[in-house]
Amino acid sequence: MKRYIHLILLITMIFCMKSFKSAAAQFKADLTDFVPLFDGKTLDGWRKFSEGGNWKVVDGSIVGDQLPGGRGGLLVTEKKYSDFELYAEVLTTYPLDTGLFLRILQGRNHYQVTIDYRPTGEVGAIYGPLPIKGGDFFKHCFEGFSHWNPYEYNPVRVRIEGQPPRIQVWIRDTEVTDFQDTLIDGKPRFSDSGFIGIQVHSGESWGEGSKVAFRKIMIKELK
Questions:
Q1: pLDDT of residue 8 exceeding 60
Q2: 19 DSSP 8-state letter
Q3: Average predicted confidence (pLDDT) for the chain
Q4: Which residue in 11, 158, 171, 209 has its CB near the most CB atoms, within 10 A?
Q5: Domains of the chain from N-terminus onward
Q6: How many Cβ atoms sit within 10 Å of the Cβ of residue 213?
Q7: pLDDT one-digit tens code per residue, 39-58
Q8: Neighbours of 17 (CB within 10 A)
Q9: pLDDT digits (tens, 9 = 90+) for 92-133
Q10: Global pTM?
Q11: Which DSSP string corresponds to 105-144?
């Protein structure tokens, strides 16, 4: 059964690759009141959250890949944010596992919007760490692949607001995820503020030679 499901996902990915070439060029985001988090030239305002990951600026994008030995890592903002809308355009080679990290702090504290570009992955799901070890999906998103174009930069918009937060995800102009978190034993699952991060996944989740590129990273803080 698992092999059958994976085959269906792979066929869906191939179909989406062929059907998106014209649709991507037609989308134009409304970025009124958004301000840049990335200047398109340097990594000013960003820092490594862990030792792994190879990050550099190439042609106006932050490009990430693994260091030797499959070492991945996170690049995060120097400033913390609480309630906001985040916009980024993301280009992925195949296969790789990356994502947008929200309110991230040390100590297993963050929400992740997945960009897991593999047959078994999900784009636009909400994922996070469990209290002791490992992680799990807080909300799946099986629709995301049908809006992802491997030939283009994909516009992604994320809105996080409240505590516990509501998290919404759009790919181009389509909302693919709407997740409302709840209290756990009477307390919020994670902190109400933290850094914003982008990821190069460690290990076999990242294909040899794969790269991810982020451009036009912008934020609109919510009052």
A1: no
A2: H
A3: 90
A4: 171
A5: 2-20+31-221 (2.60.120.560)
A6: 20
A7: 999 999 999 998 899 999 99
A8: 15
A9: 999 999 999 999 999 999 999 999 999 889 999 999 999 888
A10: 0.89
A11: ETTTEEEEEEEEESTT--EEEEEEE-SSS-EEEEE--SSG
